[in-house]
Amino acid sequence: MENSAIATALNSLSKALEANPEKARAKYAPATATLVNGLKCRVTGSSGEQIETDMPGSMGGAGSNPNPGWFFRASLAACCSTIRCGATLRLP
């Protein structure tokens, strides 16, 4: 999505939330983790999205996927980057 389209979408969302603040409440969708094999887990979201994690061999896993801590740090990094980009695009 182009920067101008992102800015337009964010401004539209902001106006909608100002008009209806109750819609700003977070609706936390569940994430369900299932052990696949050993320490490998498959995490599934309510819309069918999935990630798989595994622990490194030194911790008893197979190291076949990133470990859960990496996904945690990646989610925080992506969240911060997204918020920063959105804030920058909304500047006058």
Across the major sheet, the strand order is 1-2-3
Q: Which structural class best describes the helix and strand composition?
A: alpha+beta
- Topology as a string of helices (H) and strands (E): HEEEH
**Percent in strands:** 15-25%
* Largest sheet composition: 3 strands, antiparallel
Over the alpha carbons, how many angstroms does the gyration radius reach?
18 Å
- Which range best describes the helical content: under 10%, 10-25%, 25-40%, 40-55%, 55-70% or over 70%? 40-55%
- How much is the average pLDDT? 92
Overall 3D form? elongated
Q: Which ranges are low-confidence, i.e. pLDDT below 50, for 5 or more consecutive residues?
A: none
Instruction: Calculate the terminal CA-CA distance, rounded to whole Å.
Output: 20 Å
Explain how this protein is built.
With 92 residues, this protein is α+β, with helices and mostly antiparallel strands. The chain starts with a helix and ends with a helix. The protein has a three-stranded antiparallel sheet with strand order 1-2-3, with no helix packed on it. The protein has helices at residues 3-19, 68-89, and strands at residues 31-37, 40-45, 50-53. The chain is elongated.
Topology:
Elements: H1 3-19, E1 31-37, E2 40-45, E3 50-53, H2 68-89
Antiparallel strand pairs: 1-2, 2-3
Task: Describe the structure in brief.
With 92 residues, the protein is α+β, with helices and mostly antiparallel strands. The protein has helices at 3-19, 68-89, and strands spanning 31-37, 40-45, 50-53. It is built from 2 helices and 3 strands; from the N terminus they run αβββα.
